[in-house]
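Example complex used in Figure S2.
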Amino acid sequence: MSKKRGSQTYVIDSDICIKNTYTIVGPEEAQGSFKDYYDYLLEDDLWECKSYEKAEIKLHKEVIDGVLKKEYLTHNNIDCIFGGDLLNQIISSSFSAREFEVPFLGLYGACSTFGESLAVASMIMDGDNMQRTVCATSSHFGTAERQYRFPLELGTQPTPTSQWTITGAGAVLLEKNSGNFPKIKSVTIGKVVDYGIIDAANMGAAMAPAAYDTISTHLKDMNRTPDYYDLIITGDLGKYGLDLLKHFAEVDGLVTDNIFDDCGARVYTSKQNCGQGGSGAGCSAIVYSAYLHKELLAGKLHKILLVPTGALLSRLSTMQGESIPSIAHAIDIEI
Amino acid sequence: MSKKRGSQTYVIDSDICIKNTYTIVGPEEAQGSFKDYYDYLLEDDLWECKSYEKAEIKLHKEVIDGVLKKEYLTHNNIDCIFGGDLLNQIISSSFSAREFEVPFLGLYGACSTFGESLAVASMIMDGDNMQRTVCATSSHFGTAERQYRFPLELGTQPTPTSQWTITGAGAVLLEKNSGNFPKIKSVTIGKVVDYGIIDAANMGAAMAPAAYDTISTHLKDMNRTPDYYDLIITGDLGKYGLDLLKHFAEVDGLVTDNIFDDCGARVYTSKQNCGQGGSGAGCSAIVYSAYLHKELLAGKLHKILLVPTGALLSRLSTMQGESIPSIAHAIDIEI
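Predicted assembly (670 residues):
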């Protein structure tokens, strides 16, 4: 019996709980809007490592360790680690996975990877193939800047639409039938959408159409209006991208006020000089794991649609004159 | 009811058929051992594109199109495309996915990605979450050489243990309950294994321990000996890596003669000057899709264990002095 609804959405029949979370963030994030919610705050984003890349690998490993320790679990209790990051060949995820004696499935959906990992893990667990898994994603300002844009040492000035890559990682523990925890109720798998944006410093505009495509498909597939949710929150559109997303929705007659928001637009305070807001594979991971999860547990939120967004460019694709294809996956989380 | 067997293996209860396949290969592969089995042979590996990267994107798109056309299907008939490749940010997969109006899940396990995609797709389909999917992976000699090693124009001499990245892509159509086709019966998800090899031109040695870890775990989890299978075939260990794998198995008392083989070691003839053999995310994809699938359909093989292998390095990890973590996933395919 198919669990598919409409064209792209799957209802998760089993009881897949997000049982616990763990987050580590860098110094900039530690001064941000959710500073009181993170588990571990770094004072130095090198974290005693010889390179930013090694620091990101450490971040990725330590959040997985962190969520396991919170639940008094060891590696043997975990069926699989799902994860990804922004670095070429997702080395943060792969190299951290070698520290664990746990099966590993590497995913890549750029900054949407946290959503992809929740979607893939919950669909696999729904088929009784796994009982307890960890999903983790990470990003690092220093590694992303030098891989995608310029080395920090150049002191390049950001453009008005640019965003600030999150230094941080988030991990969640998924477990079947664990009681009264936030649960993944349905997932919508995104299509790749490309509106022809070629400015790699304007990710919000590149990703907003993909986000709206997935959100509108989810609502249609599930026969819902936005107000079914307390919050529909995208991954890292930033302020400008969020405005575009709301515009798309309003043109279609959807009510967005007090419902639509974006992790990237929220993660820093207005006093921080972080452009349009946060971005990166760690963005939705830390905002969900630190803030949204606790709000759900506290009963301040009951139903949210988390929509991590990803810009699927590479430096090479940009150099070859390509536009920026984007994707978003929607995760319906309820308690 | 959990379908887990032992520590890392999942029995696929549903009837997940590999209903059809499609392959496109480059000029070198077109002279190789399986030249009569491929669907489409390129005379020029640029394929009328402006760059090798654009050619690889075209390869990836055309194999998906090819397998759909063989089955008279359109994009609307497909629940999801799973795929990955070796390029930074898997642009071959992502950029080809924008040509289809189909949900997309990007995966990265280096050259093991074909195995990862079969494992993830079959576990999701097993949960009744999807009915018909496409798994596709690709690689290209020109793009891989310049990304991982040196631009072709430099004419760098290969070392004795080096392999030849496959120019080619393979796509398979997975469908539930389609009758008498090869079926995915169980999957073993690999762990990341690192024996400290630091020579990026000796992938066979880096990956052989991961391959053996997964194969021996699979056999233990399923309580089988190698002779349960007509063939246990790894992805791209090459000749030297295959020798190492057999050595590991023989030390443990397993019989490997006439059972253990490797797609990379087989894909070129001994007359071709291709080092230890083929490698790349396209390697196991084209050998399964072109040769093994037809042998299964023809009744020449009945039970095979396909074990795509991946070296999870990046150019940057190598430059930072890191060793090469590796992974392998085992797919039990029977008819």
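Chain B has nine helices and 17 strands. Chain B touches chain A through 62 residues (CB under 8 Å).
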